């Protein structure tokens, strides 16, 4: 693990990092039950002792300075928060989880990072591991090795926000940043028993220096509770001129929890979202939880809704590599051996085969997918499906594996998560139970700008069948 030396002032800690949610930690700071310095010391000690490999960089010395000066009146005042290593924090490594950029240092803060510090008062303590350039839904890279799932370290933490999910579920920190271009918040949230929200496209700005690309990427967090995510929206959302697609600011996400009219909403419960191959026991859990949610919230279940969202094909996948080519610049193709084989293969395909005909096919396929999602939401207000096809698969498995159940687990995630990115609609992943002792999850999807409704529906599940906030026997 790449990190600065642990602060010399740290003492032996018998107290663990806070194992509740982030909002309760802030309450503890404000009441004097715990101080930001005490929490930081416990956090750094736990990270040092952890075998999860969730962190790629820790900024211990400066984090102590920030803890001592924390303003706990702010929404995240004094809270140790980790940043996914695909994000940008001035003065920190800017590796994008790739050997190619292992020595690069960031020169600016991303908009979300700046807001976490200025509006939120967060104490950013380090960077969590991710898949290389966010291109895969696994937690394995050449740069950092394997990140384990705290429920079972031999299992994947998912990706691309795998380190953030492992750190939060592993009891090291209460909340961490994430990004979701095809499921990269929701997939690891599902595998690790957390809440993961992909907001309406543009809800949280992506600047500065954003590339437009396929316009599927959103940013957010990995969290233990719904109210934590709502508070994140209060701090981080709202228009910024450096993201021309960002949405106007809305205040009161946390204060407004529980205020949406849910009664009478029409919901379709389609565990496989029409095409994914998922574990039968998981389909039963999704159906049962969806029916419970509909009953408690007063929603009307609409049976027989056909979901037919077409796949986008490999042309769409490689079309998104244009931004990576910009990033690699003159380093490509000489850097090919430093890349994971999946990313290297994709780059070779994109630079060697992608042309105007393929670009046209991508546009046609995306239009069809958008229309299919619109057709679905012409019939219902809410769609419920699984987040992942199964519980977490073995950690060492790569995205190109072609064996048995692992193939099912890897190849079907996109069918469940990508449609929300393509259409830009909000989707929240929430834990719904365990299979084989590992968390499983379902998604609640809504129309554009229905983020607050999804928060309230997720909170119903949280209230009716509360989930463990951390994995057993954490921190590890």
Share of helical residues: 25-40%
CATH topology: Amidase signature (AS) enzymes
Can you tell me the CATH class? Alpha Beta
Class based on secondary structure composition and strand pairing: alpha+beta
Spell the H/E element sequence. HHEHEHEEEEEHEHEEHEHEHHHHEHHEEH
Span between termini: 15 Å
Which term fits the overall shape? Answer: globular
Q: How confident overall, as mean pLDDT? A: 92
Secondary-structure arrangement, i.e. CATH architecture: Alpha-Beta Complex
CATH homology group = Amidase signature (AS) domain
Low-confidence stretches: 1-13, 399-409
Count of folded domains: 1
Q: Give the number of helices.
A: 15
Largest sheet descriptor: 8 strands, mixed
Q: List how many beta strands DSSP finds.
A: 15
Read across the widest sheet, the strand sequence of neighbours is 8-10-9-14-15-13-11-12
- Kindly provide the radius of gyration, computed on alpha-carbon positions and rounded to a whole number of angstroms: 21 Å
Strand fraction = 5-15%
